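User: Here's a structure from my thesis project, written as structure tokens. My advisor, Dr. K., wants to see whether a designed sequence matches the one we expressed. Can you design one independently, without my sequence as a hint?
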């Protein structure tokens, strides 16, 4: 996965002539921006293809009706996460509880612990009924709650801590799926990141990458290795654009909440995704419960 493609002016001589002939009105209507960027994808095609394929994989293994009707765009604000806890532990527990509800995993048994408990095993065998569900779902029964280990140093940074929780939730959910992600087991970590965006945490995730990833910032070598095992922030923004187009979420609902360096790229990603009609039709078909019933049969 690589960063955004360059956007130089080479090859656009005819555009500049049109600009000179048309004057300020040409710029005001935004035609120049469209002419310059509409035919140049913001990511390399291999990365874009994998992101669309990964969405298809998610729809084949998770509920399309939950995605369409109950999954929401989650933001790290007081509306989504009202805070009334004053201790670090209480704050972490409250944030994770809300994040789990937004992910459709609030009925799973959890135990939120700081990183002094990192020795706890997290390779618990999950029962078959461990899946997404919302209000009214029966609580999953396990011998012991699933450990959620967080870094106490992130507690004062709500968005970064939430991104780490989204990563943990996606990490548990991916283990319940019956199909390896596109690219096989070697893309497991990338697919976990994609699932976090699929669950609605795309803005939080893109804004916070790579600050919450294990190993980043501890050693130069370890940090670089960790980054290679995850999608880039540009991949996350493009995945967020796919999410927004599929959900019918307007750009104006997203842009104010993205960090400034990501906003222009998000606009380009939205334009690119909206232009990929065949890929969108394929995903929309996979998100249809009737289509998926036939697929699973």
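Assistant: Designed independently from the structure alone:
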């Amino acid at each position: 996965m690589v960063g955004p493609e360059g956007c130089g002016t080479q090859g656009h001589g005819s555009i500049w002539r049109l600009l000179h002939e048309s004057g300020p009105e040409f710029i005001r209507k935004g035609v120049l921006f469209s002419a310059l960027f509409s035919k140049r994808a913001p990511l390399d095609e291999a990365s874009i293809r994998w992101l669309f394929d990964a969405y298809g994989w998610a729809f084949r293994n998770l509920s399309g009706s939950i995605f369409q009707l109950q999954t929401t765009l989650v933001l790290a604000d007081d509306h989504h996460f009202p805070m009334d806890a004053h201790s670090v532990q209480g704050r972490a527990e409250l944030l994770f509880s809300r994040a789990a509800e937004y992910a459709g995993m609030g009925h799973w048994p959890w135990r939120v612990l700081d990183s002094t408990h990192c020795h706890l095993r997290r390779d618990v065998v999950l029962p078959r009924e461990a899946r997404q569900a919302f209000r009214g779902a029966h609580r999953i029964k396990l011998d012991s709650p699933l450990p959620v280990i967080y870094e106490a140093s992130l507690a004062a940074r709500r968005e970064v801590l939430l991104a780490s929780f989204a990563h943990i939730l996606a990490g548990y959910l991916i283990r319940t799926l019956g199909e390896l992600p596109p690219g096989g087991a070697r893309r497991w970590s990338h697919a976990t990141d994609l699932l976090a965006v699929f669950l609605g945490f795309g803005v939080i995730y893109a804004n916070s990458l790579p600050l919450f990833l294990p190993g980043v910032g501890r050693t130069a070598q370890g940090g670089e290795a960790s980054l290679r095992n995850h999608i880039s922030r540009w991949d996350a923004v493009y995945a967020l654009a796919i999410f927004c187009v599929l959900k019918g979420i307007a750009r104006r609902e997203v842009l104010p909440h993205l960090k400034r360096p990501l906003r222009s790229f998000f606009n380009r990603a939205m334009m690119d995704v909206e232009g990929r009609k065949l890929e969108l039709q394929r995903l929309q078909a996979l998100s249809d419960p009737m289509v998926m019933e036939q697929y699973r049969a």
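When you compare it with your expressed construct, this may help: The first helix runs from residue 13 to 22.
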